[in-house]
Amino acid sequence: MEVIFNADDFGLSKGVVYGILEAYKHGVVKSTTMLANSPAFDLGAEVAKENPGLDIGAHLTLTFGSPILKDVPSLTAESGKFLAQDVLRGSADAIDFGEVEREFTAQIEKILAAGITISHFDTHHLIEPIVLPVLQKLAKKYQVGLRRSVHDADYTGIPTTDRFSDQFYADGITADVVKQVVKAHEKDTETLEFMCHPAFIDETLLSLTSYTDYRIKELTFLTSDEVQEALKSVGAEVVSFKEVMK
């Protein structure tokens, strides 16, 4: 089985950028997805261009920070920032999907304008089930891959993995979880993506998310001999999203 460890949130903070870089240079992370509206976007773009072997995707968001566009009222609160995750999920029927497409396009184009080639899309806070038709349309338009977080959806014509796992998270950051997920799907799966969030902790990160200490645990594990041994024991090979699309 070919396994992808995709590091979400590239650009969220300086610590996240350098944590993902560490997991790429000394660990099993070969792919990451970038937040276009993130505080450390410029640093992320610089690091991405200095490390062309690190596969970059777009981490499209409707639940973090402020939109790139100013005229997307169905996606924003009175503050002008995106709706909170729980509010977005609870009011999905009120979303203007034309606004979603325009905002996602603006996020994609910002990353491309920074001189970065994008290989795939995924979403912040796993909102794929809410916006999947828009993601599918844009993946075909830009000829890139998609995270398969809606496993039974129709991905015809869109490069993706056979499986996606969100189990490598919080208390699931263990060799046993990695091995269990791989073994559970080894008979019907050739490609599997694990979502991950390695980072060094900094003040910006602490101000933006409650998922903090676990990121250091992820980084430690993803750069360890333990993860290499776990993958070897189940016959898994680490690849990037770009390699899966070939």
TrEMBL record:
CDD domains: YdjC_EF3048_like
Enzyme class: hydrolase
Sorted UniProt keywords: Carbohydrate metabolism, Hydrolase, Magnesium, Metal-binding
SUPFAM superfamilies linked: Glycoside hydrolase/deacetylase
Domain of life per record: Bacteria
Cofactor(s) the protein needs: Mg(2+)
Residues that coordinate or bind Mg(2+): H59, H124
Gene Ontology MF terms: deacetylase activity; hydrolase activity, acting on carbon-nitrogen (but not peptide) bonds, in linear amides; metal ion binding
PANTHER family in UniProt: CARBOHYDRATE DEACETYLASE, YDJC DEACETYLASE FAMILY MEMBER
Identification of the protein by name: Carbohydrate deacetylase
